[in-house]
Design goal:
By secondary structure, the chain is α/β, with parallel strands linked by helices. The protein has ten helices and 13 strands. It has helices at residues 75-82, 119-125, 147-158, 164-177, 194-205, 224-241, 252-258, 276-281, 286-292, 379-386; strands at residues 21-22, 31-42, 49-60, 64-68, 90-102, 109-113, 130-133, 212-216, 244-249, 261-266, 269-275, 343-345, 350-352. A hairpin with a 2-residue loop joins strand 10 (261-266) and strand 11 (269-275). The protein is globular. Bound molecules: adenosine-5'-diphosphate, iron/sulfur cluster and magnesium ion.
Length: 388
């Protein structure tokens, strides 16, 4: 089953108040996170812009959800708001974010609506159940503290019963998990490379065995080789430890290497959602196609990069109708008047918001958006993607 799919056993999000405490005895929901009708604004009155608009998604345990979109599409705002790290003038206008965390020793699952949770609950949940590697992570380490102090602080705060020796042992274990040797513990951040600092941040995020790890552009500032190494390590860590992950990047080609499912955001809204393979193989939204043509694949044959014409819209002055209409090579008259909503394609979890795909529409779907991307992909590319 895809990470985005709901199963019949999954409870209706609407029915949940927050915090909702230990879940019922029935089969636990396979979803670690359910985000429902989620909208976020910045500012008030005439200055207000909506940076996240009616977003819905679910994430299964141990799965990776990729969030893609150009800079300014609302990716960071979405995850900061879900985890309640959003700062003023950002405000959650509506929606819920139900987190389900495993209780110790297999004693079921506990549920919280993060949107409604008080500070005490949030302190309990952060690090232990949800950890976030922020977009500015490369500069997030305190420059005057040795790396071991960073680990010590997290472990002391959340695992008060651990002795100093146990904390040291756990820190060494965590560093090894991300491919760093023990001696890095005694270094200052400036003595580490960008890739090593990022690995330290990932190790810190995993320190308390969280159910969900959120990574906001963790490899964007790194060279391609280091990027690829870190992506491979994350894949490995996820299969060993079973945490779910939300991985944000503007580089859709990179996401295809890592994610089970992908949502593509444009101007604050999800415009396409699909499994990573489906999205790579057969994008349906013109914006997704543009993103795929903007970055070279990490594996496989070279392809011509065409990018997307124009720039992301000003949220304060969105075009009428489809927000992508000013940049879309397939724009139609209707697109400039009416805004498309997400509709299901093929099966329940594949969705797109584009008039081209409306059932019964008279428009002919362009070949690039109706077939496998044979032209742009070699057999070795497909083999790589399919072997994931
Ligand atoms: N502090 C802020 N004040 C006002 N508007 C903001 C602020 N931060 C972000 N925004 C608005 O929200 C939009 C989405 O930003 P962001 O979530 O950072 O996008 P992304 O992470 O996709 O690059 C931006 O284009 C901007 O218009
Ligand atoms: S609705 Fe129209 S403008 Fe928007 S993406 Fe589809 S074809 Fe392009
Ligand atoms: Mg961002």
């Amino acid at each position: 089953m895809s990470a985005l799919e709901r199963s019949d056993e999954s409870p209706q999000v609407d029915a949940l108040a927050a915090p909702v405490g230990p879940a019922e005895k029935e089969a636990p929901s396979p979803f670690v996170l359910d985000v429902h009708d989620f909208s976020v604004d910045y500012g008030v009155g005439t200055q207000m812009v909506t940076a996240v608009r009616d977003v819905n998604f679910s994430l299964q345990r141990s799965k990776v959800l990729g969030v893609a979109g150009e800079s300014g599409s609302g990716k960071s705002t979405l995850v900061y708001a879900i985890t309640r790290l959003l700062r003023a003038p950002g405000v959650i206008r509506s929606g819920s974010a139900i987190l389900r965390v495993a209780l110790p020793d297999g004693h079921g699952v506990e549920e919280f609506d993060l949107v409604q949770a008080d500070e005490r609950t949030l302190r309990r949940v952060r690090w232990s159940h949800v950890s976030v590697v922020l977009q500015s992570a490369l500069n997030a380490l305190n420059p005057v503290l040795r790396i071991r102090r960073e680990f010590d602080e997290v472990l002391k705060t959340h695992r008060a019963s651990m002795t100093k020796t146990q904390r040291r042992e756990r820190s060494v274990e965590l560093l090894r998990m991300v491919g760093l040797s023990e001696d890095r513990l005694d270094r200052f951040p400036h003595e580490l490379s960008g890739g090593q600092r990022q690995r330290v941040m990932i190790a810190l995020a995993l320190a308390l065995d969280p159910d969900l790890v959120i990574m906001d552009e963790p490899t964007t500032a790194l060279d391609v080789v280091t990027q690829r190494e870190i992506i491979n390590e994350l894949n490995d860590l996820r299969s060993r430890f079973g945490f779910a992950m939300i991985f944000i990047t503007h580089d859709l080609s990179l996401l295809v290497e890592l994610a089970d499912d992908i949502v593509v955001m444009y101007a604050g809204a999800i415009v396409e959602r699909a499994s990573a393979l489906e999205l790579y193989d057969a994008p349906r939204h013109p914006y997704t196609l543009g993103l795929l043509n903007s970055f070279p694949p990490l594996h496989g044959a070279r392809q011509e990069l065409t990018g997307i014409p124009g720039s992301p819209p000003d949220l304060a002055q969105l075009p009428a109708g489809c927000s992508f209409s000013t940049r879309c090579p397939f724009v139609m008259e209707r697109c400039r008047r009416e805004s498309p909503t997400l509709i299901s394609l093929d099966d329940d979890h594949r969705q797109v918001a584009c008039w081209l795909h409306e059932p019964g529409a008279s428009a002919t779907v362009p070949v690039e958006l109706s077939q496998r991307r044979r032209a742009a992909t070699s057999d070795s590319d497909l083999a790589t993607a399919e072997s994931k």
